[in-house]
Amino acid sequence: MALKVKTAETKVVLVNLLICMVVFYTVYYVVLSVCFAVFKIKMLDGWAPFDFKTNPSWINPHYLVLVISLETTFFICGLLFALVVEEWVWDYAVTVTIIHIIITSVVMSEFPLMLHWWLALGSGVISMTCGGQILAYCLFKDNFIYPILDDF
């Protein structure tokens, strides 16, 4: 059985993915800037979205900024992804997160093995997916495509 993929559908998916990536990093840097201003941290590091090496401590304001901005970004992006892709928020959320992990590994020149980073990332993906899917369902419930499972 051959895999049949239409070029138009692939282009739409890739364009949506590109839009989601741009939205993700734009929101990330805006939220980082706000958090840096709120916590009165002098220097905004351009590599902050990829920093998993900061020592986890609830009294370290730099670490708090990284965690709060990560979680806030993921939640906001889930809601924005719902407006871009309508019903497949979970798919784009996971794909953007995997791409972010790859970019993080390349930027930091090592694969992130810090448990605290993975926990923050995992909870962010869950909030992105759940928030985005709920919003997509509320906004587009009349247009949702429900699979026909009678053939299984």
TrEMBL record:
Pfam families: SYS1. This is Transmembrane protein 244. It comes from the Eukaryota. Its main location: membrane. Keywords: Membrane, Transmembrane, Transmembrane helix. InterPro entries: Integral_membrane_SYS1-rel. It is found in: Membrane. It is a multi-pass membrane protein. The chain crosses the membrane at residues 12-41, 61-85, 92-111, 117-140. GO terms for cellular component: membrane.
